[in-house]
């Protein structure tokens, strides 16, 4: 197992942010982060910035909803979601608490999110990659996001168009909130 320091992603990285778990607009219905911050281990950060560069070449931007998630926050989501296919069991560590997963979407140059057929964290079969029961434009946007992230070295979770993770994520240990630079989330 590797242990790496989490690195903060910022707007100076050319990314957009809407950290949903720092607001009540999420599956738990309440803020579960104290501050809106996105963190990743160095390898994941490098791969995300590679995807950012490829998106920019297409005139698109990446909008990040979530990245590292403390185990404590994973528990809040675990208790809030009935369909456990959409949230990892915190007892098994999950991938977000390892700092190797990111939830994101595509945005236009002005920062407006592109249509994806469902919202972020929609607990429905319509959220699955390859779903053809959504408008063609949304299918195309999902395919572009999948292509960019795959080309940058990310794996995906089939039920969630927004979720990407490093391959072999369990080589990284789960991290508690105390691992966050500048204090807990």
From TrEMBL:
Class of this enzyme: hydrolase
Domain of life: Bacteria
Cited HAMAP family: A_A_dipeptidase
Binding site for Zn(2+): 96, 103, 163
UniProt xrefs under SUPFAM superfamilies: Hedgehog/DD-peptidase
Function: Catalyzes hydrolysis of the D-alanyl-D-alanine dipeptide.
Protein name: D-alanyl-D-alanine dipeptidase
Gene Ontology terms, MF aspect: D-Ala-D-Ala dipeptidase activity; metallopeptidase activity; zinc ion binding
Annotated keywords: Cell wall biogenesis/degradation, Dipeptidase, Hydrolase, Metal-binding, Metalloprotease, Protease, Zinc
UniProt entry tagged with the keyword Metal-binding: yes
Active site: 160 (proton donor/acceptor)
Family membership: Belongs to the peptidase M15D family.
Catalytic reactions of this protein: D-alanyl-D-alanine + H2O = 2 D-alanine
CDD domains in the cross-refs: D-Ala-D-Ala_dipeptidase_Aad
Gene3D superfamilies: 3.30.1380.10
A GO BP annotation: cell wall organization
Names of the cofactor(s): Zn(2+)
EC number from the UniProt entry: 3.4.13.22
Site (Transition state stabilizer): 69
Keyword NADP: no
Entry-linked NCBIfam families: PRK10178.1
InterPro entries linked to this entry: A_A_dipeptidase, Zn_M74/Hedgehog-like
Cofactor notes: Binds 1 zinc ion per subunit.
